[in-house]
């Protein structure tokens, strides 16, 4: 268990905002600091990244702060869980006292779906994958989904339950992009436009503006702040690949090692976790991650989620905000997984609150199942 805690958490405006990336970042950070009872003058550590790389120096300059510690690790959707680990280490080493972790994107307002930059002709992808013109990252996840369904002997309808459950949670979250859209059915998912077989539009995350921030400090300092601290109990990570070409089995990821390390540090088992916030870039991402966490065996995730197990009121509360599938996905949403976990452990999630939630596991996935980072959090109420 580390000696640090998350003491503030907030979203910026979500959906279609018309705001700049830095404007959204500022919203998220100032709201999170206000939530923590702190100000920019208290911040001496800053961690941030972006959809297409984003230097923390840009953000610090815009905010008018000069942090003595910073991190701009670019690892996709898992970066923010990695930042929690780095922040904890920096605080415990005396390199910083108050660290803000943030992200924002205006990708929907900017009308951009591209998460890839210009091609480097010397990369593995350029040599062996780019000639087939895959949609990045969609086609890669679709390939993993096709392989998974084949090996598990399951069909698209079983996978669709993950999207249906996410919508059910979003209907309880007024901030969710799909809050007013009404329930989603298995038939709706199957009948949605096919984007990259076997994934339809409803199997894919949203494209929205948005972002968020969390404030991390020592457990000792947290005791003097107004909000209940959420303790960082453990963390772990794995980096496995940049290209699908190098993966011996594309349906097995580094999430298992990351989660095992985090749970061991927290001295908890997966059965001790009350709330799961898992990156859901696509429905298949959730299925693979559930198996890697050890909640079921290989090929059994779709049996695990059947019969409403991950819907509100089910035995396995998962992605309680509505996730990237129905709440918000601004290109990278690992920060928003942390924000939701904090709210659940504080008992502040309103209609979607998981009764008695005291532990949460947050898992970020980046790239094409490339980077994996897990954080285990515990309530102090």
UniProtKB/TrEMBL annotation:
One GO MF term: acyltransferase activity, transferring groups other than amino-acyl groups
InterPro entries (UniProt xref): Thiolase, Thiolase-like, Thiolase_C_2
Pfam families: Thiolase_C_1 (PF22691)
SUPFAM superfamilies associated with the record: Thiolase-like
Domain of life: Bacteria
UniProt keywords, alphabetically: Transferase
Thiolase C-terminal domain sequence ranges: 236-378
Protein name: Acetyl-CoA acetyltransferase
Organism (species): Mumia flava
Upper classification of the organism: Bacteria, Bacillati, Actinomycetota, Actinomycetes, Propionibacteriales
